[in-house]
Design a protein that fits this description.
single chain; 98 residues; mainly alpha; 0% strand
């Protein structure tokens, strides 16, 4: 697995662009961080799901299939962090219907 893969550069640029976008909005920091985690997780999930068809269409990129699991796991952990922050900040740990 090549650590300097263009995929890692793309993921880093996408997450950095989301962070910059959220930092420039006039909203509270907690809400911006929750939105950052959600958008980052969504983009990483999309990238992870696109790797499979890309490898089928372009067999020369078969080395990217090794990266798919890592990107998917990172997206999962960002989703879990997003979910926990939403439960803590918006619902104050009271998930029961109101």
């Amino acid at each position: 697995m090549n650590k300097s893969s263009p995929l890692f550069i793309f993921i880093g640029l996408a997450v950095s662009a989301i962070a910059l976008y959220e930092a420039l909005l006039p909203i509270p920091a907690a809400i911006a961080f929750v939105r950052f985690l959600g958008l980052s997780a969504f983009i990483l999930l999309c990238v992870s799901l696109c790797i499979g068809p890309i490898v089928v269409l372009r067999p020369k990129l078969a080395h990217m299939i090794e990266l798919r699991q890592g990107v998917g796991l990172f997206a999962f952990f960002l989703m879990v962090a997003h979910l926990l922050l939403v439960i803590v900040l918006y619902y104050n740990w009271q998930i029961a219907p109101m």
